Amino acid sequence: MDQILEVVALLLGFIGWVMVGVTLPNRYWRTSTVDGNVITTSTIYENLWMSCATDSTGVHNCREFPSLLALSGYIQASRALMITSIVLGTCGLLAALIGVKCSKAGGENYVLKGRIAGTAGVLFILQGMCTMVAVSWYAFNITQEFFDPFHPGIRYEIGEALYIGWCSAVLAIAGGACLTCSCKMGTKEKYPLPLHSRGTVYSGAAARSQAASTYGRNAYV
C-alpha cells in the first residue's frame, strides 16, 4: 500500500466521521422565518430531535418531539441512518488505525493489515452512504413540502446541518474509496527462497576443484 495514500484516506475518513458527529445534534436541519411586525417576527428551526423558535428579541424556546411513533417515517429513518453512520465510522476508524502500514498495531503481517485496511475502507463507504441517504431523504421532504401548494403547515427551507452532512458523506466515501483501492488484498507473504534457487555450498576438495576449473590451476599454490 502507498503509505501517503493511506494517511490521506485516514484523514478524510476521520474528518467525515467528525462532521457526522457535528451534523447529528445540529439544530438547523430545516429553518423557516415567520414574518410579522418587529415583535412577532420569529425563526423556527428543527432537527431530528426537537423543534425550536427564536423571536426578534433573541428569546428562544425548544421542545423535544413528544413521541417517537408520532413522528414521520422519514424522520425515524434518518435517525436510524445517522446513528448507524456514526457506529460504522467509529469501527472504520479503529480498523484503519490498525490496518495502515505506518501503524505498529497488528504486528508485521502485512497481508492481514491490508485486509483490515480494506475492511475499514468499506466501512467508511457505508458510513458515507448512510449519511447521504439520511440527509438527502430529509432534504427531499423539505423541498416537496415547500413547493406543494396545498401544504397547510409551515414551509421550511434547507438548514446548514444538511450541507455539513453532505460534505461529511462525500469525504467519507472518498476516504473509503482511496483506502480500499490502495490496499493489496491478495498480496502473498514473502516466503524463504526454494532450495533449488539457493547458492550451492561446496566443501573441501569439491570447493578447490570448482575454483581450479573456474580460475585455472595456478590460482592455488
Give the strand content. Answer: 5-15%
**How are the strands of the largest sheet arranged?**
4-3-2-1-5
- Annotated CATH topology: Butyryl-CoA Dehydrogenase, subunit A, domain 3
Categorize the overall geometry: elongated
Domain unit count: 1
Low-confidence stretches: 185-207, 217-221
What is the count of DSSP helices, taking H or I runs of 4+ residues? Answer: 5
- What's the helix-strand series? HEEEEHHEHH
The computed structural class is alpha+beta
Oligomer: single chain
What does it look like?
The chain has one domain (3-192): Butyryl-CoA Dehydrogenase, subunit A, domain 3 (Up-down Bundle), CATH 1.20.140.150. Helices cover 54% and strands 10% of the residues. The chain has five helices and five strands. It has helices spanning 3-23, 73-99, 110-146, 160-182, 205-215, and strands at 30-34, 42-46, 50-55, 60-64, 157-158. A hairpin with a 7-residue loop joins strand 1 (30-34) and strand 2 (42-46). It is elongated and about 60 Å long. The model is unreliable at 185-207 and 217-221 (pLDDT under 50).
Main traits of this protein?
221 residues; alpha+beta; Butyryl-CoA Dehydrogenase, subunit A, domain 3; 5 helices; elongated
Short description:
With 221 residues, the protein is of the alpha+beta class. It contains five helices and five strands, in the order αββββααβαα.
How is the topology of this model organized?
Elements: H1 3-23, E1 30-34, E2 42-46, E3 50-55, E4 60-64, H2 73-99, H3 110-146, E5 157-158, H4 160-182, H5 205-215
Antiparallel strand pairs: 1-2, 1-5, 2-3, 3-4
Helix pairs in contact: 1-2, 1-3, 1-4, 2-3, 3-4
Subcellular location: Cell junction, Tight junction; Cell membrane
Keywords: Cell junction, Cell membrane, Membrane, Tight junction, Transmembrane, Transmembrane helix
Organism: Gasterosteus aculeatus aculeatus
